[in-house]
Amino acid sequence: MALARRGGIGRYYDVNGWLFVAPALGLIALFMVYPIVWSLWMSFQSGRGMMMKFAGFSNIVRLWNDPVFIKALTNTMTYFVVQVPIMILLALILASLLNNPRLVGRAFFRTAIFLPCVTSLVAYSVLFKGMFAFGGIVNSTLQAIGIIASPIPWQTHPFWAKALVIIAITWRWTGYNMIFYLAALQNIDRSIYEVARIDGVPAWARFTHITIPLLKPVILFTTVISTIGTLQLFDEVYNLTEGKGGPSNATLTLSLYIYNLTFRFMPNFGYAATVSYVIVVLVALLAFLQFFLARERDR
Amino acid sequence: MRNNPANIASAVLTYGFVGLMAFLSIFPFIWMAFGATNSSIDIIKGRLLPGEALATNIANFFTLVNVPLVFWNSAKVTIFATVLTLAVSSLAGYGFEIFRSRHRERLYRAMLLTLMIPFAALMIPLFIMMGKMDLINTHIAVVLPTIGSAFIVFYFRQCTKAFPSELRDAAKVDGLKEWQIFLYIYVPVMRSTYAAAFIIVFMTAWNNYLWPLIVLQSNETKTITLVISSLASAYYPDYGVVMVGTILATLPTLTVFFFMQRQFVQGMLGSVK
């Protein structure tokens, strides 16, 4: 044993172990860890382009007085607060309906609802932009069935523009979340549901008292994933609004603002890095909060 | 008992709701397919019938876009990203699981934390780095930062837990070296893991947008996602052309989905087991 530890097996294990993991760790260190530390450093600097000098906390002060940043932050939080719960609830309902083995055509329904996941974010944004044009198919259909009297200005009104982004993301990701719940539901013994049904527990109560508690770990996981995704929203808004986040910044997200600050306006890397750290902090805080809440409720 | 009014009502509700959701999920695809056959004006008006403009749209798409070049660019980026990510990540996933040590366990946990890093916080430093290495406007710059993926390493490690240790022991008795065990035993045995991971990486690489948008600036290097985006954001976009482009861009992922549906779902579910 002592021999093994000094030279032989322990050392052999170590050399091999390091050789196998080194390429991945090296790349992650170089292209994730090093840049994230660098952008923290950058957020304390200011200046145009590469001409940067130390600026202390002036970027953080500037955040506070920047109405566009406040707007981007509010929009991003609005997407997060409105969209994530709608999508998760919808995905849960669909999963529990499709989990019923007596449902005819469930394989078809499952595939159909999952299908949006194969599209690229750019492709579906472009499709949605066309479908939700002022005189487009969505407005004309809604008018034809009498839900609305006059066409909705999906792309020119601040409220509806945000609604369009939320509808689009929900279309793209509900099936994705549903797949997680369906996989988790397969591990639940169906007889629990049968017993509850025979005891006269109504469907809605079975959903809230059996399905949701049992799926809690998966719901937590998907919520965290969706949170990270929503806070980074970029492709959809960029492609629905020609990169502007309009009308008048009503759909602008933090990521799009960072992109504009860096690559569209006079580049100010320091300030853009500060805005990007707002996302870092938000992701960390919200992920922590969600884990914390889940643990609290367990007690 | 099964046919009482309440049961019928709930069945109608269930099928109605699920059916509506399925329809809404598929509808944009139908719209896209019809769109490709119609003129731009008809598409925007929402015409839902096959038209006669398919040949014109395709011809316009081919005149506006250097299609072989664009697809070659996308294919190149995707193939390199996929092969390199799978190689690097499976090595690491195997390494972390088979050769355990306290230090590596710590590094592994630290690595998982990088999953929470938003790309927006990386793009400026990465852009400056690529500029310093003189890689702006190259496909190397697109692929390089995506190869080290904590998520795929995690996925491989989770799946390696199911790799039978007897196989390793037997191979060692036969005198195989560690790299031989990995290459000749682990890789073939873990085929389905590779298939699922392939789908995740393939999808991400083929559909990647923000980073290529920053790094690829000339028309000669642009990938299909960038081309579609710029076609659609023209002042007067020709939607017929856009539809043809969207279909062509979606076809590869759609094909992979239909031929490898099981692995596709497996890949999406990742390691939540």
Automatic annotation (TrEMBL), chain A:
Query: Would the keyword Cell membrane turn up in this protein's UniProt record?
Result: yes
**TM stretches of this protein:** 20-44, 77-95, 107-127, 160-183, 214-234, 269-293
Q: Which UniProt keywords apply?
A: Cell membrane, Membrane, Transmembrane, Transmembrane helix, Transport
Output the GO biological process annotations, alphabetical, semicolon-separated: transmembrane transport
Q: How does it sit in the membrane?
A: Multi-pass membrane protein
Give the GO cellular component terms, alphabetically. Answer: plasma membrane
The record ties this protein, via PANTHER family, to: ABC TRANSPORTER PERMEASE PROTEIN, INNER MEMBRANE ABC TRANSPORTER PERMEASE PROTEIN YCJO
Q: What is this protein called?
A: ABC transporter permease subunit
Originating organism: Rhizobium fredii
Taxonomy-wise, where does this protein's organism fall, top ranks first?
Bacteria, Pseudomonadati, Pseudomonadota, Alphaproteobacteria, Hyphomicrobiales
Automatic annotation (TrEMBL), chain B:
| Annotated Gene Ontology cellular component terms | plasma membrane
Its membrane topology is listed as: Multi-pass membrane protein
Where located? Cell membrane
Task: Tell me which Gene Ontology terms the entry assigns under biological process.
Answer: transmembrane transport
Question: Could you confirm whether the keyword 4Fe-4S appears in this record?
Answer: no
Gene3D superfamilies in the record, alphabetically?
MetI-like
Membrane-traversing stretches: 12-34, 78-99, 111-130, 136-156, 181-206, 239-260
Under InterPro entries, the record lists: MetI-like (IPR000515), MetI-like_sf (IPR035906)
Q: Which UniProt keywords apply?
A: Cell membrane, Membrane, Transmembrane, Transmembrane helix, Transport
Q: Where is the ABC transmembrane type-1 domain?
A: 71-260
Similarity field = Belongs to the binding-protein-dependent transport system permease family.
- The name of this protein is ABC transporter permease subunit
